[in-house]
TrEMBL record:
This is Glycerol-3-phosphate dehydrogenase [NAD(P)+]. The gene is gpsA. Coiled coil: none annotated. One of its GO terms (biological process) is glycerol-3-phosphate biosynthetic process. Its main location: cytoplasm.
Length: 345
């Protein structure tokens, strides 16, 4: 595929939550001549977008561009779209793809915005997409980075990473989503980009718990740094690259998510740290905090790869009720002494 491939006349985005709507806005702002078609599960969400250019449940009073239209009709949204972007919760993707498959335009490229690992299979979203849609790797891409949706919706300058094994495809997608306030970089490390986005959610739960227990910045910096170490071990074991983990989709996203009150994963962790039960947290959360469901899958994948992930292990123990939030931080500090640079330990 050539980097000079023309921009698509239509882009389909599936999932009208925070990130799907915001990403649709990025593309529509970037290219007023592209028709951006957003699939909403609920007809009333599509109606509000079309009639008032708002998605108030997810993006409050942010005004959406005129060339962004929504529909609850999947066939209408997917019809004739050479670029399809997925932004639904990770655990629902496989079921969603079964309905997408017969409606996908021939030759369409599919992009994952999701940051979750599938429970049961431990599959990354690009793997689920390839399996369910039967696509070659050069027709599947991922986008990840320090991308808190609300900041981007407010047009605050943000960078991200588009990854595809075919660099020219990544460059084509980057051209589609380059807006004055959104700067995508490209690379071919799909595994590293996805793992960075998945594991940072689990680490953010841990940092949130520490915040909820009123621990200070030393604790948070320690968990973030050691969190990056264990994320990197897993990514490298799976074939990802070190540079990716030091970049926007690794360190960048980890810092943003662990620092921001806008992060749903950080918020869920803070609520746990403040003493709410997991059921109470789930009831309180109105948006997707992927780390809650992905944590167990990350740990299972790490076990298969022979990678130690002590922070993830402790977070999963809290989520599964085997460890109290009071015991989390001490658990992380009472492991055997070792050299900081030991990548496989
Ligand atoms: N919000 C962000 O800042 C952000 C940024 C980067 C990546 N992401 C990732 O994007 C993905 C989507 O997150 P979001 O923030 O848009 O979530 P969200 O909770 O805001 O919205 C999820 C959307 O999916 C729909 N949905 C829920 N269950 C579904 C199902 N079973 N089948 C089909 N659709 C369903 C909802 O109606 C909603 O439109 C997640 O993997 C998240 O990690 C989010
Ligand atoms: O709100 P979170 O925790 O899902 O994080 C959103 C984005 O992934 C941050 O990059």
């Amino acid at each position: 595929m050539s980097a000079r491939r023309p921009l698509p006349a239509k882009v389909a985005v599936l999932g009208a939550g925070s990130w799907g709507t915001t990403f649709a806005k990025v593309v529509a702002d970037a290219h007023p001549d592209i028709q951006v078609s957003l699939w909403a599960r609920r007809a009333e969400v599509a109606k509000e977008i079309n009639e008032f250019h708002l998605n108030s449940q997810y993006l409050k009073d942010i005004r959406l561009p005129e060339n962004l239209a929504a529909s609850a009709d999947l066939a209408q949204v997917l019809g004739g779209a050479p670029l399809v972007v997925l932004a639904v919760p990770a655990q629902s993707v496989r079921a969603q793809l079964k309905t997408v498959k017969p409606l996908l335009a021939p030759g369409a490229v599919v992009v994952s915005l999701m940051k979750g690992l599938e429970r049961g299979t431990d599959a990354r979203m690009s793997q689920v997409i390839r399996e369910e849609l039967g696509l070659p790797q050069d027709r599947v891409a991922v986008i990840s980075g320090p991308n808190l949706a609300m900041e981007i919706a407010r047009r605050e300058p943000t960078a991200s990473v588009v990854a595809c094994t075919d660099l020219e495809v990544a460059q084509w997608i980057a051209a589609v989503c380059t807006a004055p306030y959104f700067r995508p970089y490209t690379n071919t490390d799909v595994v590293g980009v996805e793992i960075g986005g998945i594991v940072k959610n689990v680490i953010a739960l841990s940092v949130g718990i520490c915040d909820g227990k009123h621990m200070g910045d030393n604790t948070k910096a320690s968990v973030i740094t050691r969190g990056l170490a264990e994320t990197t071990r897993l990514a490298l074991a799976l074939g990802g690259e070190l540079e990716t983990m030091a970049g926007l989709a690794g360190l960048g996203d980890l810092v943003a998510t662990c620092s921001s009150p806008l992060s749903r994963n950080h918020t869920a962790g803070r609520l746990l740290g403040e003493g709410l039960s997991l059921d109470e947290v789930n009831q309180r959360m109105t948006q997707t905090a992927e780390g809650i469901k992905s944590g167990r899958a990350v740990l299972d994948l790490a076990a298969q790869m022979g990678v130690e992930m002590p922070i993830t292990e402790a977070v999963v123990a809290v989520l599964e009720g085997h460890l109290s939030v009071e015991e989390l931080a001490p658990r992380l500090l009472t492991r055997e002494l070792k050299s900081e640079g030991e990548q496989q330990q």
